[in-house]
Amino acid sequence: MELKTHIIQEADKLFELYGFKSVTMDDIAKHLGISKKTIYQNFNDKNELVKLLIKDRLANLKCINAERSEKAQNAVEEIYLSIQEIKKSVKNLNHKLFFELQKYHPQAWQLLNEYKQKSIYADIVSNLNRGLAEGLYRPELNVEVIAQVRMNQINMIFNRSEQILESNLNLSQVLQEISLHFLYGVCNEKGHKLIQQLNAQIEEQ
Q: 154 and 64, same structural domain?
């Protein structure tokens, strides 16, 4: 494995545990058992390291989303698979990461925002068009409007995760409920029956 990639992966583990603010380049060097000079030979500063880390994560996420779309037998199942993936990722998420990324690493935060506005929005539109083509979503849907509604839901969760947790709500459960609410809203009767079937399958697991 390339040293630069190894540093990013190990730094990511520290950031997950302690947050972006607390972890220093010294901490990363000690964790890896290498000199700080070696780290600076690969990265100009911590900002660049974090930016490349986020860029790598987003590229990986884009691949996962594409694989999920291919794996899903229909648009409704695609949403369900997305819910399951989100629940797993949120379970061990350090929720202060979003706040610290925005405050201390604005360039990396901008990459995340661009990904949401372009890639996630495109995935939502693709799913809506797929559901319409499969006869599972209501034919009168305005794809552009509904896609923006879904984006607003996602942004709300990103921007208010701390408040959600302070309200003693389970973030994973909030994500699931909002996603199911959205899905019930866009589905027609055929889609609703499929939702019930998928719910039954999950309960049996």
A: yes
Q: Give every CB contact of residue 36 below 8 A, 6+ residues apart in sequence.
A: 25, 26, 29
Over range 70-94, report the average pLDDT.
85
Same domain, 81 and 175: yes
| Cα distance between residue 132 and residue 191, in whole Å | 10
Rounded to two decimals, what is the model's pTM?
Answer: 0.88
User: % helix / strand / coil in the chain, to the nearest 5?
Assistant: 80, 0, 20
Whether the Cβ atoms of residue 54 and residue 46 lie closer than 8 Å to each other: no
Tokens of 148: 């923006």
Q: What is the CATH number for 19?
A: 1.10.10.60
83 and 31: one domain?
no
- Mean pLDDT (whole number) for 46-52: 97
